[in-house]
TrEMBL record:
Keywords: Oxidoreductase. It comes from the Bacteria. PANTHER family: 17-BETA-HYDROXYSTEROID DEHYDROGENASE 14-RELATED (PTHR43658:SF8), SHORT-CHAIN DEHYDROGENASE/REDUCTASE (PTHR43658). It holds the Pfam family adh_short. This is SDR family NAD(P)-dependent oxidoreductase. The lineage of its organism: Bacteria, Pseudomonadati, Pseudomonadota, Gammaproteobacteria, Oceanospirillales. Belongs to the short-chain dehydrogenases/reductases (SDR) family. SUPFAM superfamilies: NAD(P)-binding Rossmann-fold domains. It comes from Marinobacterium alkalitolerans.
Length: 253
């Protein structure tokens, strides 16, 4: 898909992988709408890339529908959507204080998995009404999973389940939306320098980097954005989950 003036939506675009994606898409010529709960930072990034910011809770149907309407009014029907909004709290199935509270598990599923589907369903409906290019393509949706979907560590039960669900949606969604000319792919990142990671002491960051086969450093958000750009550009990439992880296979703890 060509990027020039194509309306794009990036959830979680105020920071981390979402910001890297938003900047990459804007630099390629897309008209970017950042959907996030971080208003101050979201508005700042949007101003820097010549896009717009819309406050959005991805786990809420009403909030997401209103955000899509605002983005559509500003830029037109979306042709590119990147789902990066998510949370990654730790918690064991049975901890020192007993079994994990069910609401803790539910919250992660609602934001990471239900939130991803919420955005996907709205994007698919909007893209289906866009004019197709020469290949019959009308839109590209990119979800964010994690290598924890495959090698969830101890304490990642909710996170792993949510990201495993995102992986499981990928091929099915690509097959179903093929009739509309919409491609669906997922990126499963490894260890990246996100704002959460930047808050860790340097020795912790160094110890994590040492577990990576090659290169032995944390990923950069702009490198995530590079893959987003490549997925959008390559019309044959469809129904795939791509690991972006320096060949890391996580140990149990």
């Amino acid at each position: 898909m060509d990027f020039k003036d194509v309306p794009a939506i990036v959830t979680g675009g105020a920071s981390g992988l979402g910001e890297g994606s938003a900047r990459a898409l804007a630099a390629a010529g897309a008209r970017v709408a950042i959907l996030d709960l971080q208003e101050e930072r979201g508005r700042q990034v949007a101003e820097e890339i010549g896009g717009i910011f819309v406050r959005c809770d991805v786990s809420s149907a009403e909030s997401a529908e209103a955000a899509f309407a605002a983005a559509r009014e500003a830029h037109g029907p979306c042709g590119i959507v990147v789902n990066c909004a998510g949370i990654a709290p730790a918690g064991k199935i049975v901890g020192k204080e007993g079994p994990m509270p069910l609401e803790n598990f539910n919250k992660v599923i609602q934001i990471n998995l239900v939130g991803s589907f919420n955005i996907l369903r709205l994007a698919a409906a909007e893209m289906a009404n866009r004019e197709a290019n020469a290949d019959g393509e009308r839109g590209v949706i990119i979800n964010t999973a994690s290598i924890a979907a495959y090698e969830g560590q101890i304490g990642q039960v909710a996170y792993s389940a949510s990201k495993g669900g995102v992986v499981a949606m990928t091929l099915q969604s690509a097959r179903e939306l093929a009739r509309s000319g919409v491609r669906v792919n997922t990126i499963a990142p490894g260890i990246f320098m996100t704002p959460m990671m930047a808050g860790f002491p340097q020795e912790v960051q160094d110890s994590l980097a040492a577990t990576l086969p090659f290169p032995q450093r944390l990923g950069k958000p702009e490198e995530y954005g590079m893959l987003v750009e490549q997925i959008v550009k390559n019309p044959l990439l469809n129904g795939e989950t791509i690991r972006l992880d320096c060949a890391l296979r996580m140990a149990p703890r």
